[in-house]
Amino acid sequence: MTETSSIEDASPVATYNRRSRGDALGVGIASMIGLLALLVSGYTAYIQRQQVRAQVWPYLSKAYVSPTEVEDKPYTLAIFNKGVGPAIVQSVQVSVDGKSQTTWKSVFDVLGLPSGKMEFSSLDGNVLSPGETLPIQVFHDAAEVSRFRQAMKMRVTMHICYCSTLGECWMLADQKQQGEPDVQAIAKCPRLATADTFTD
Q1: How far apart are CA 21 and CA 46, in angstroms?
Q2: pLDDT-based confidence at 52, cuts 50/70/90?
Q3: What is the pTM of this model?
Protein backbone atom coordinates (compact mmCIF):
# COMPACT_ATOMS: atom_id res chain seq x y z
CA MET A 1 0.00 0.00 0.00
CA THR A 2 2.79 2.41 0.86
CA GLU A 3 4.57 1.84 -2.41
CA THR A 4 1.30 2.40 -4.30
CA SER A 5 0.76 5.81 -2.57
CA SER A 6 4.27 6.89 -3.43
CA ILE A 7 3.73 6.00 -7.03
CA GLU A 8 0.41 7.86 -7.09
CA ASP A 9 1.94 10.99 -5.50
CA ALA A 10 4.64 11.06 -8.10
CA SER A 11 2.22 10.71 -10.98
CA PRO A 12 2.30 13.32 -13.78
CA VAL A 13 -1.21 14.53 -12.89
CA ALA A 14 -0.29 15.29 -9.26
CA THR A 15 2.91 17.04 -10.33
CA TYR A 16 0.98 19.15 -12.87
CA ASN A 17 -1.61 20.13 -10.23
CA ARG A 18 1.09 21.27 -7.83
CA ARG A 19 2.80 23.29 -10.55
CA SER A 20 -0.52 24.85 -11.60
CA ARG A 21 -1.25 25.94 -8.06
CA GLY A 22 2.24 27.38 -7.77
CA ASP A 23 1.92 29.21 -11.08
CA ALA A 24 -1.46 30.66 -10.09
CA LEU A 25 -0.03 31.84 -6.78
CA GLY A 26 2.91 33.45 -8.59
CA VAL A 27 0.58 35.20 -11.04
CA GLY A 28 -1.56 36.46 -8.16
CA ILE A 29 1.46 37.83 -6.30
CA ALA A 30 2.82 39.47 -9.46
CA SER A 31 -0.58 41.06 -10.12
CA MET A 32 -0.74 42.44 -6.59
CA ILE A 33 2.78 43.85 -6.90
CA GLY A 34 1.87 45.44 -10.24
CA LEU A 35 -1.28 46.99 -8.78
CA LEU A 36 0.65 48.30 -5.79
CA ALA A 37 3.29 49.82 -8.10
CA LEU A 38 0.52 51.45 -10.14
CA LEU A 39 -1.06 52.94 -7.01
CA VAL A 40 2.28 54.25 -5.77
CA SER A 41 3.03 55.75 -9.18
CA GLY A 42 -0.38 57.46 -9.31
CA TYR A 43 0.03 58.86 -5.79
CA THR A 44 3.55 60.09 -6.60
CA ALA A 45 2.25 61.85 -9.74
CA TYR A 46 -0.54 63.46 -7.66
CA ILE A 47 1.93 64.72 -5.05
CA GLN A 48 4.23 66.08 -7.77
CA ARG A 49 1.33 67.92 -9.42
CA GLN A 50 0.31 69.42 -6.08
CA GLN A 51 3.88 70.63 -5.60
CA VAL A 52 3.95 72.16 -9.08
CA ARG A 53 0.58 73.83 -8.44
CA ALA A 54 1.97 75.38 -5.27
CA GLN A 55 5.05 76.60 -7.14
CA VAL A 56 3.07 78.40 -9.89
CA TRP A 57 0.11 79.64 -7.80
CA PRO A 58 -0.74 83.31 -8.53
CA TYR A 59 -2.83 85.56 -6.30
CA LEU A 60 -4.00 88.97 -7.49
CA SER A 61 -5.13 91.71 -5.15
CA LYS A 62 -6.28 95.31 -5.59
CA ALA A 63 -5.18 98.22 -3.40
CA TYR A 64 -4.74 101.98 -3.30
CA VAL A 65 -1.16 103.08 -2.79
CA SER A 66 -0.64 106.25 -0.77
CA PRO A 67 1.73 109.16 -1.71
CA THR A 68 4.35 108.01 0.76
CA GLU A 69 4.75 104.70 -1.06
CA VAL A 70 4.97 105.81 -4.70
CA GLU A 71 7.26 108.68 -5.62
CA ASP A 72 5.81 111.34 -7.96
CA LYS A 73 2.51 109.43 -8.23
CA PRO A 74 0.33 110.73 -5.40
CA TYR A 75 -2.46 108.13 -5.46
CA THR A 76 -2.37 104.86 -7.35
CA LEU A 77 -4.96 102.15 -7.84
CA ALA A 78 -2.80 99.07 -8.33
CA ILE A 79 -3.15 95.37 -8.96
CA PHE A 80 -0.38 93.26 -7.49
CA ASN A 81 0.49 89.59 -7.56
CA LYS A 82 1.06 88.24 -4.07
CA GLY A 83 1.42 84.66 -5.32
CA VAL A 84 4.51 82.66 -6.27
CA GLY A 85 3.66 82.14 -9.95
CA PRO A 86 2.77 84.40 -12.90
CA ALA A 87 -0.84 85.56 -13.23
CA ILE A 88 -2.12 85.49 -16.82
CA VAL A 89 -5.01 87.96 -17.07
CA GLN A 90 -7.67 86.49 -19.35
CA SER A 91 -10.51 88.98 -19.03
CA VAL A 92 -11.46 92.21 -17.26
CA GLN A 93 -14.96 93.56 -16.77
CA VAL A 94 -15.77 96.95 -15.24
CA SER A 95 -19.35 98.11 -14.73
CA VAL A 96 -20.91 101.32 -13.48
CA ASP A 97 -24.40 100.95 -12.02
CA GLY A 98 -24.58 97.51 -13.60
CA LYS A 99 -23.68 98.65 -17.13
CA SER A 100 -20.42 97.42 -18.66
CA GLN A 101 -17.79 100.00 -19.62
CA THR A 102 -14.91 99.44 -22.03
CA THR A 103 -12.44 102.19 -21.01
CA TRP A 104 -11.50 104.27 -17.98
CA LYS A 105 -12.65 107.37 -19.85
CA SER A 106 -16.17 105.98 -20.16
CA VAL A 107 -16.09 105.03 -16.46
CA PHE A 108 -15.08 108.55 -15.45
CA ASP A 109 -17.62 110.15 -17.80
CA VAL A 110 -20.49 108.13 -16.30
CA LEU A 111 -19.28 108.95 -12.79
CA GLY A 112 -19.03 112.65 -13.67
CA LEU A 113 -15.32 112.79 -12.84
CA PRO A 114 -12.68 114.67 -14.88
CA SER A 115 -10.69 112.37 -17.13
CA GLY A 116 -8.34 114.86 -18.82
CA LYS A 117 -5.29 114.00 -16.71
CA MET A 118 -5.79 110.26 -16.58
CA GLU A 119 -2.80 107.96 -16.37
CA PHE A 120 -3.41 104.24 -16.60
CA SER A 121 -1.87 100.93 -17.55
CA SER A 122 -3.58 98.22 -19.54
CA LEU A 123 -4.51 95.14 -17.52
CA ASP A 124 -6.41 93.04 -20.06
CA GLY A 125 -4.13 90.40 -21.57
CA ASN A 126 -1.27 91.30 -19.25
CA VAL A 127 0.93 88.86 -17.33
CA LEU A 128 1.96 89.81 -13.80
CA SER A 129 5.08 88.16 -12.45
CA PRO A 130 5.27 87.12 -8.78
CA GLY A 131 5.66 90.23 -6.66
CA GLU A 132 4.87 92.57 -9.56
CA THR A 133 2.66 95.62 -9.00
CA LEU A 134 0.79 97.16 -11.92
CA PRO A 135 -0.60 100.69 -11.39
CA ILE A 136 -3.82 100.64 -13.40
CA GLN A 137 -4.95 104.15 -12.43
CA VAL A 138 -2.93 107.15 -11.22
CA PHE A 139 -4.44 110.23 -9.57
CA HIS A 140 -2.80 113.59 -8.86
CA ASP A 141 -5.59 115.13 -6.82
CA ALA A 142 -6.63 113.95 -3.35
CA ALA A 143 -10.24 115.10 -3.78
CA GLU A 144 -10.52 113.27 -7.10
CA VAL A 145 -9.23 110.00 -5.71
CA SER A 146 -11.57 110.32 -2.75
CA ARG A 147 -14.58 110.69 -5.05
CA PHE A 148 -13.38 107.81 -7.21
CA ARG A 149 -12.87 105.50 -4.22
CA GLN A 150 -16.37 106.30 -2.97
CA ALA A 151 -17.80 105.53 -6.41
CA MET A 152 -15.83 102.27 -6.55
CA LYS A 153 -17.48 101.18 -3.32
CA MET A 154 -21.03 102.15 -4.30
CA ARG A 155 -21.36 102.15 -8.10
CA VAL A 156 -18.40 100.46 -9.75
CA THR A 157 -17.73 96.73 -9.94
CA MET A 158 -14.55 95.17 -11.30
CA HIS A 159 -14.00 91.51 -12.15
CA ILE A 160 -10.56 90.27 -13.15
CA CYS A 161 -10.21 86.69 -14.32
CA TYR A 162 -6.71 85.24 -14.41
CA CYS A 163 -5.06 81.84 -14.73
CA SER A 164 -1.85 80.09 -13.76
CA THR A 165 0.56 78.47 -16.20
CA LEU A 166 -1.23 75.17 -15.47
CA GLY A 167 -4.54 76.58 -16.70
CA GLU A 168 -6.18 76.86 -13.27
CA CYS A 169 -8.23 80.05 -13.03
CA TRP A 170 -9.52 82.48 -10.41
CA MET A 171 -11.82 85.50 -10.34
CA LEU A 172 -10.91 88.65 -8.40
CA ALA A 173 -14.05 90.61 -7.55
CA ASP A 174 -13.94 93.92 -5.69
CA GLN A 175 -17.65 93.78 -4.87
CA LYS A 176 -18.97 90.52 -3.47
CA GLN A 177 -21.50 89.07 -1.08
CA GLN A 178 -20.67 89.48 2.59
CA GLY A 179 -18.41 86.68 3.78
CA GLU A 180 -17.18 85.72 0.31
CA PRO A 181 -13.42 85.81 -0.39
CA ASP A 182 -11.96 88.43 -2.73
CA VAL A 183 -10.66 85.68 -5.00
CA GLN A 184 -12.58 82.54 -5.94
CA ALA A 185 -11.42 79.57 -8.00
CA ILE A 186 -13.42 78.97 -11.18
CA ALA A 187 -13.34 76.29 -13.87
CA LYS A 188 -12.34 78.72 -16.63
CA CYS A 189 -12.52 82.41 -17.45
CA PRO A 190 -15.73 83.53 -19.17
CA ARG A 191 -15.79 84.61 -22.80
CA LEU A 192 -17.00 88.21 -22.74
CA ALA A 193 -18.76 89.99 -25.56
CA THR A 194 -16.89 92.95 -27.03
CA ALA A 195 -19.32 95.38 -25.41
CA ASP A 196 -18.60 93.82 -21.98
CA THR A 197 -14.80 93.64 -22.29
CA PHE A 198 -12.77 96.29 -20.50
CA THR A 199 -9.85 97.08 -22.81
CA ASP A 200 -7.82 99.56 -20.71
Answers
A1: 38
A2: low
A3: 0.72
